[in-house]
Design brief:
By secondary structure, the protein is mostly helical. The chain is built from 14 helices and no strands. The chain has a domain of about 190 residues: MetI-like fold. It comes from Kribbella jiaozuonensis.
């Protein structure tokens, strides 16, 4: 009994530590300019104020929101399509060096993104894609090793007999993939899409480096660079953070059962 109480106490403490920053974000976003200095961080502003949201959108935040939505949708679509094609090839097609190529590609997960940031920027510069939508989206649009790994593992769990039966009926590789494999892969497709949306929605370093125009600025960069007339407007920054966080929270709540199921099937712990 004492052990159980101790375990629950530790779990509750960990939960509080994890949730507390988000709690402060909500409280700060709904405080007026004077309430931030007049109250403790964990005290709500009375009465709640939406002035920070008005200042935020008056500064062009709505454009950042639209840019982020479009860029996230485009990159996510590209990542899912190319990851599906690559994963199916690694899972079902036979060609020389298939497994070696897969593990070499997967090993790039061990390389920190900052290591390739400068060479990637120089490539975009040589191609004339600095401060363009193409330069912003192309480097991550053609699939990611982690997404390909998850999809490959899931595809390998689908009985090959189903695909053999489809080929006997005259279906080609593409028809088999579209009509047989993908309908059975909804959980992992939802998982890969969710992970891609979260990663691209929160992307900061690459958009900061590759773009300089305000009309191409994304949410994460816009929030980081947001300043008031005197110093940093923390109320507006927290309001922007809250707006950026809300879609991701809703996305996870809606699709969490698919994520859990796909992780269980692929054998990841």
């Amino acid at each position: 009994m004492k052990l159980r109480v101790f375990v629950y106490a530790v779990l509750v403490a960990g939960c509080v530590l994890a949730i507390f920053p988000y709690f402060l974000t909500v409280l700060t976003a709904f405080k007026g300019p004077g309430q931030l200095s007049e109250t403790m961080p964990w005290e709500p502003g009375v009465p709640p104020s939406t002035a920070a949201f008005h200042r935020l959108f008056a500064s062009g935040f709505g454009g950042y929101l639209v840019n982020t939505t479009l860029v996230t949708a485009g990159i996510t679509l590209g990542q899912v399509v190319f990851a599906v094609l690559a994963a199916y090839a690694f899972a079902r097609l036979s060609f020389p060096g298939r497994d070696a190529l897969f593990w070499v590609y997967l090993s790039t997960l061990m390389v920190p993104p900052v290591v390739t940031m400068i060479p990637l920027y120089l490539m975009m510069q040589k191609l004339g894609l600095v401060d363009t939508w193409a330069g912003l989206m192309l480097p991550t649009m053609l699939g990611t090793p982690y997404a390909i790994f998850l999809l490959r593992q899931f595809f390998r769990s689908i009985p090959a007999d189903l695909e053999d039966a489809a080929r006997i009926d005259g279906a080609g590789r593409v028809r088999t993939l579209v009509s047989i494999v993908l309908p059975l892969s909804k959980p992992i497709l939802v998982t890969v899409t969710t992970l891609a949306v979260v990663a691209n929605w929160n992307s900061f370093l690459w958009p900061l480096i590759i773009t300089s125009s305000e009309d191409k600025r994304l949410l994460s960069v816009g929030i980081a660079l947001f300043k008031g007339e005197i110093g940093v407007d923390y109320n507006a920054v927290m309001a922007g953070s809250l707006i950026a966080l809300a879609p991701l929270l809703v996305l996870f709540i809606v699709f969490q059962r698919f994520i859990v199921r796909s992780v269980a099937v692929t054998g990841l712990k």
